[in-house]
């Protein structure tokens, strides 16, 4: 068996029935292979099927058709409590009347493990997630980030084959989210545990994943490394979802063996010829996508001109919403030492594009 076939989803489908004869397909024939020890994130908008997929892997939902295969054996009919795939929830799901030690030990007690084993394993789990000294406290006495680490320790103490995460950081503030996701990734790498993680937060997925699986309308639309997903989106949906891209309509005017020339906003730009995927012909109507950080803003006049509608100073960067002849676009400019450009509302500016970052799609 190949290493990347440790957990396999084969033609997985999940239909829900509303009691009035209507069927809603939440997961639509998806297939996915996950390597042992990988951190895989299901990423997509609300209602795309990512949480339903996670719940089927956990055994909380039964698939309509398809197979879930773990290490070469089908686990379709194995109940959730026998799959050894604990889930870390968004709401922590801690017992408020139990101490931190008792919360972490709960699964081991259910399994009737010896007291000495429980004591040692809980101590090790608490140490891994930096909870030493808090074992006698109650959940209500801890911060949100500490409570989420208790939930993580409670999962880790079971020595799981796979650990599942259902938007575990959604209830934390921005700084705690970054700290806790770093902690999750550190422990996952330390133990070599396979992780399947669900989120709708793009920066979260990019920062912790080995593989990102983009879902929309119950289907997988692209999967790959964070770098591949960000730099080579497979279509306009991924381009917009993962990088808040700007989109422009254009027409192909010329094609050579390196570039496609496209009319854009009354001018012409040369876009790198895609190495794979769609083919283009002269006269094709296309959509060009470019990320905000590949739009350059400067004072004065140029080939492309507009005016500042909104200026948002964000510390390391400044984000601009620019009004131009055909609508609005977003640009993000880095603030380097001695070079902070803070254009104001209504100021007329010129903008240009780092053309190598354009992505081209047929309309």
Automatic annotation (TrEMBL):
GO molecular function terms noted in the UniProt entry = ABC-type transporter activity; ATP binding; ATP hydrolysis activity
Please state every residue range assigned to the domain named ABC transporter: 7-242
Entry's InterPro entries?
A: AAA+_ATPase (IPR003593), ABC_transporter-like_ATP-bd (IPR003439), ABC_transporter-like_CS (IPR017871), ABC_transpr_MalK/UgpC-like (IPR047641), Mo/tungstate-bd_C_term_dom (IPR008995), NA-bd_OB-fold (IPR012340), P-loop_NTPase (IPR027417), Transp-assoc_OB_typ2 (IPR013611)
Superkingdom classification of source: Bacteria
A GO term from the CC aspect: ATP-binding cassette (ABC) transporter complex, substrate-binding subunit-containing
Q: What keyword terms does UniProt attach to this protein?
A: ATP-binding, Cell membrane, Membrane, Nucleotide-binding, Translocase, Transport
UniProt-recorded name of the protein: ABC transporter related protein
Traced from the root, the source organism's taxonomic lineage reads: Bacteria, Pseudomonadati, Spirochaetota, Spirochaetia, Spirochaetales
């Amino acid at each position: 068996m190949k290493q990347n076939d440790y957990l396999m989803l084969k033609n997985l489908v999940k239909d829900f029935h509303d009691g009035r004869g209507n069927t809603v397909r939440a997961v639509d024939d998806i297939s996915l292979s996950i390597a042992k020890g990988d951190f895989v994130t299901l990423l997509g908008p609300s209602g795309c099927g990512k949480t339903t997929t996670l719940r089927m892997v956990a055994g909380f939902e039964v698939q309509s058709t398809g197979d879930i295969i773990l290490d070469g054996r089908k686990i379709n009919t194995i109940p959730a409590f026998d799959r050894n795939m604990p889930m870390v929830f968004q709401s922590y799901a801690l017992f408020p009347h139990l101490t931190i030690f008792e919360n972490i030990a709960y699964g081991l007690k259910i399994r009737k493990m010896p007291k000495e084993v429980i004591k040692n394993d809980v101590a090790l789990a608490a140490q891994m997630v930096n909870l030493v000294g808090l074992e006698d406290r109650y959940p209500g006495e801890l911060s949100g980030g500490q409570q989420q680490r208790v939930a993580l320790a409670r999962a880790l103490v079971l020595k799981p084959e796979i650990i599942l995460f259902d938007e575990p950081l959604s209830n934390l503030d921005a700084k705690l989210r970054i700290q806790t996701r770093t902690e999750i990734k550190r422990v996952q790498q330390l133990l070599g545990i396979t992780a399947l993680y669900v989120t709708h937060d793009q920066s979260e997925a990019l920062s912790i994943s080995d593989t990102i699986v983009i879902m929309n309308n119950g289907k997988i639309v692209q999967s790959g490394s964070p770098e591949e997903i960000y730099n080579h989106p497979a279509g306009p949906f991924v381009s917009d979802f993962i990088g808040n891209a700007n989109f422009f309509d254009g027409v192909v005017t010329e094609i050579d063996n390196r570039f496609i020339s496209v009319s854009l906003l009354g001018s012409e730009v040369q876009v790198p010829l895609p190495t794979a995927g769609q083919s283009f012909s002269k006269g094709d109507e296309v959509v060009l996508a470019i990320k905000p950080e590949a739009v350059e803003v400067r004072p004065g006049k140029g080939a492309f001109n507009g005016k500042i509608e909104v200026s948002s100073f964000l510390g390391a960067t400044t984000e601009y919403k620019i009004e131009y002849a055909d609508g609005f676009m977003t640009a993000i400019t880095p603030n380097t030492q001695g070079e902070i450009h803070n254009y104001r509302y209504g100021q007329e500016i010129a903008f240009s594009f780092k053309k190598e970052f354009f992505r081209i799609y047929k309309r």
